[in-house]
Amino acid sequence: MAGMDQVIRARLDSEVALVSQVAEYIITAGGKRLRPALVLLMSAALGYRGERHRSLAAVVEFIHTATLLHDDVVDESNLRRGRATANALFGNAASVLVGDFLYSRAFQMMVEAGDMRIMRTLADATNVIAEGEVLQLLNINDPDVTEARYLQVIRYKTAKLFEASARIAAILAGVDETCEEQCAEYGRRIGTAFQLIDDMLDYSGDTAEIGKNVGDDLREGKPTLPLIYLLERGNAEQRELVRNAITQSSGSGDLERLQTEILQSGALDYVRQEAKRESDAACAAIIGLPDSVYKQSLIELSAFAIDRGF
């Protein structure tokens, strides 16, 4: 990770001072760095002992950071990772344009990697992520979003980059197609589990702990799984409360009542159960990898994805 950080700092350099300033701010804001860690751990677990994985991990982090910059503008967010968002500090225009810079820098670094399959994997993932953002936009203020539609957004918007991170590690290590697909499944499953818990914490977490404002999804009119559970399994009064909250992008007035209803309905238990199912499937996907500290770390990573907030 320290080696990857060196790559990140070296490649953030720009003659345009604002580009470097905004990029440095968001990159150094902390965060879990799960996606680049996945590149590094999976590469080592598969026996890779070179140094190219550091650069590719930095590429993944640049792509992820670019999506965060754009996300915060679209969502009008003002808090991420416990700090003011870049758009809150520097403005929407700067955030969008620096996000574009990070995307283009990532593609420059992909070309330098000199592997067409790695380039295709990351390029396809970037495109799918963009589709996921649009799908999520279409779901906003729509109380008829089903669990299937919700999961499609997760797999496009979040899980795809986890999947790509694991896949490029497998390509780098030169494993066979079966092993590569197992690694990709691990990434896809752990990414899904991570987002499920993230959406659950929006109703049960603490702002200081999760690094963003609790209830942001509700204020933005996003129908996530805790709300969908109430819509599909709640009583008439609960369903009406949720429909009004989603269609009106309700603020804190409905949040406290919704939190109570969600907790009492068993929605949070259901979400965590689904996240654990994904986490268990992730572990099963890599069960055949040779035993090592890296494999053990991947297993622990899948547990961390669902244990946050408990």
Describe this structure in words.
The structure is a single chain. This protein has helices at 2-11, 17-27, 34-45, 52-75, 86-90, 92-113, 116-139, 147-173, 177-204, 207-210, 216-219, 225-233, 236-248, 252-265, 267-285, 293-307; strands spanning 79-80, 83-84. The chain has 310 residues and is an all-alpha fold. The protein has a two-stranded antiparallel ribbon. A hairpin with a 2-residue loop joins strand 1 (79-80) and strand 2 (83-84). Helix 4 (52-75) packs antiparallel against helix 6, helix 4 (52-75) runs antiparallel to helix 8 and helix 6 (92-113) runs antiparallel to helix 7 (116-139).
Helix and strand topology:
Elements: H1 2-11, H2 17-27, H3 34-45, H4 52-75, E1 79-80, E2 83-84, H5 86-90, H6 92-113, H7 116-139, H8 147-173, H9 177-204, H10 207-210, H11 216-219, H12 225-233, H13 236-248, H14 252-265, H15 267-285, H16 293-307
Antiparallel strand pairs: 1-2
Helix pairs in contact: 1-4, 2-6, 3-4, 3-8, 3-16, 4-6, 4-7, 4-8, 6-7, 7-8, 8-9, 9-15, 9-16, 12-13, 12-15, 15-16
Please estimate the helix content: over 70%
Q: How many beta strands in the DSSP annotation?
A: 2
Uncertain regions spanning at least 5 consecutive residues: none
Number of helices: 16
Which tags fit this structure?
single chain; 310 residues; mainly alpha; two-stranded antiparallel ribbon; 16 helices; 2 strands
What is this entry, summarized?
This protein has 310 residues and is an all-alpha fold. The chain is built from 16 helices and two strands. The radius of gyration is 19 Å and the shape is globular.
